[in-house]
Structure formats: structure tokens, C-alpha cells
Amino acid sequence: MAAFPISLKVNGAAVSRTVEPRTLLSDFLRDDLDLKGTHVGCEHGVCGTCTVLIDGQSARSCLTFAVQADGCAIRTVDGLAQGGQLNPLQQGFWEKHGLQCGFCTPGMLMVATELLERNANPSTDEIREAVSANLCRCTGYYNIVESIQHAVTLMKEGAK
Amino acid sequence: MKPAVFDYIRPGSLPEALAALARHGAAGKILAGGQSLVPMMNLRVVKPEVVIDINRVPGLGAIRVDGGELVIGALARHAALLSSELVKKHCPLMADAYPWVAHGPIRNRGTLGGNISHADPASEMPAVLAACDAKIIAKSAKATRTIVAKEFFVAPLTTTLAAGEMLTEIRIPSAPAGQGWSWQEEAIRKGDFAMAAVGVTLTIAGGRCTQASVAIGGMERAGVRLAKVEAHLVGVALDEARIASAAKLAAELVQPGDSYHADARYKRELVEALTARALTTARGRCK
User: Fold this and answer.
1) Nearest-CA residue of chain B relative to A130?
2) Residue of B nearest to A127 (CA)
3) What is the pTM assigned to this prediction?
4) Is the pLDDT of residue A119 over 80?
């Protein structure tokens, strides 16, 4: 089976590897790059825990082949904290108990990252619409929505 | 699960993509957004020998207006169509239905062309295209074909596209001024597959209905038009009684199957309620 050379950016760092075409981006991130933050759940696009940002847009990494990410900039949950400090979204989840088992959290953080980058002041409905893309079986979503709202507050305070 | 082994081709132009399709025939599969194909590959429901990734073909994602038609390229993403002013203006029924299509991350990558080539009966867009008399342009290395939407979908997950053929464009006649429209749907959660959905366009002149199209989703196959319901509406005044009898007729004509969340009897009830709601809303939008 022919392997393809790919070059991409992952959380800001340049990466070059050779991949088999059938390697999913999710498996490439976890197994080739050892970035275990991206979780793999249903592997058919439903659960959303594998969500990453591809060139700034949220996408299921289980529905993307690594070879397709050639030349792209990928961001994963592993890249959110800076210098060992939680970013405001992570802090929001921490303070408002936005997780219980934590399995869905990487995907929730990434759809929320996309949301807040597009809209620094989302309404509750817009937050609910964004997180409706992903499944959480613990929280009933209430604390996730509150966590994102809290992150908005933290970001506003941080900007002062 | 993981996909079976395949060869990967990434053409840089449409002729290259069509040449690759011609070379590999039924063993080749076009990869656009991958939001239907890749799940099926992961589950090994499909095992293409060759995947032809058209994502780097320039110009295929355009959304434009040309000669009174809204023209949507094979790679136009759901997210782009959902927020498109051209779609709102020239195909308001599509704009009405788009919020029901999937969720953000799926819409970022999924394409309209891929969605209708997949031909899922529970999908919104086949019904929208059928209701709007859209034309589908299919190309092979040798020829170009134009297929009207209601003939494009032949069975669940099956279209008239032949091996070696690829959907390149969707052309939708601009909605005439004064035409009303409505999309109505019921799903377990917004963004999930429809249990039942109805799309309607209506034109009213001189107090009588002069044009009606009624398409349904979630039934026996994708892109079903209910011609008998349309005939029941055209030529008469659309009062409450007429709308109620049209909705009843729609419920009789559909061929729903049982599914996990809705049995056939319930789906018929949904079709009746949604048809009445769609006709009433569309009537209110007619000018």
C-alpha cells in the first residue's frame, strides 16, 4: 500500500510524516503524534468527541483522512492550555463543573472554541446550538452551557 | 472501526478527476465532504478500492447565479449554503430547510453534492431539490448529462449516476417573485435524520393556486414529489378545507417504513400535520 508524505501544522508546530491513505486524522493525532487529548468515540461522526479545528473550522477527525489534512493547520484540545495555564474556556469548564466523566470534553471544548472565535458574546441559544453537535451522556448539557457562558465572562475580565 | 485499505488519488483539476473515475469505474469513489462516505467506510459498509479526493479541485465550490438559475458547485459546503444570501434570495425553500441539516462540524465539511449523491431518504436536500425542479449536471470523461431532480433518486441510497460519472453542478431555477414556500420537519433532535418532512412551494394568483410543488422526506426514497397532492391544489382557492384535504391525501400517498423512533402509522400522521402546516405557512408567504 502506497504511503503518502504529508506536511501540516498541529497546534502551531510543523509536522511531516508519511501516512497510509486509510489512516483517520483522529488516529494520526493520537497514535502517530501521541496527542491523546482528542478522544475517539463512535467513529462515524455522531458523538463529536473527536472534533478538532481544521483551518479554523470544527470537523470530525474520525471522518477525515490524515492525508486530507496535508497543508492544513490543525488545532486540538492539547493546544488550548498555554504555558501550563488553562485557557478561559478550560477554566470555565473547571469552575462550573462542565464535565463529569470527561469523555466528551475535548470535542465540547473545540466546538466552543470555534463558537467563541466567531462570536465573542454568544446567546444561550447559540451556545446550545453549538454544543448540540456533540453528545454528552453525563451532564445534561446545563453545566456545559454555563461553563461556556462563564468563559465569556472570564475572557471579558481578562480583556480589561 | 477502521476503513479497509484503499488507493488515494488527489486530482488537481476536473478533467483529472474524471479521467481517474473513467480508469477505475465502479471501484472508484469520489470523496467530497466525506460526511456520508467516510462513516460508511469506517463501518466497512463500503470498501472502495480507489478514493478520488476532489477537495483540491479549484472552482468546484462556487455558489453563483447564472441565466436565472442558482448554480451550486459539487464542493459547496452546507455551512456556506446555510449562510448564503444568494440561496436566501433565489431558493428560499432551501434556506428554510438548511437549519435542519446536521450540526456545525458536519456542515463545515459536508457538501450538497455529496449529500444528494448519497440519496438518503431521511435527508432534507433531495426533497428541496425535487420541490424546486432542480437539475443535476453529471459529467464523465466522455459526456455531460442533465438529470431532473425527481428522476435523480431511484431508491434508498441509489441515484441514476453511473460508474464513471460524477455530479459537478446543481442548477435551481430562481424562485419566481411572489411564490410562497415552507419547510416543515419532525426529528427526535434538530439536526438528526427526519422522521418526516415536507417542503412546499405555492403560487397564488387571483385568489386561486396556480402552481404547487409538494415534496417529502423521511419516506420510501429520497426526493419524492406528490403529484396528486399538487393536482389537488392547483386551480382552486386554498381555504382551510382544501389544505386539510390535501394534507390527508399526502398522508395516504406516502409509503413510510417503520423506524426506531416512528412507526409507519405515526409517520403518516406526521405527514398530514406537516403538510397542512407547510401549505398554510407557504400560503401566508405568497404575494
Assistant:
1) B104
2) B104
3) 0.96
4) yes
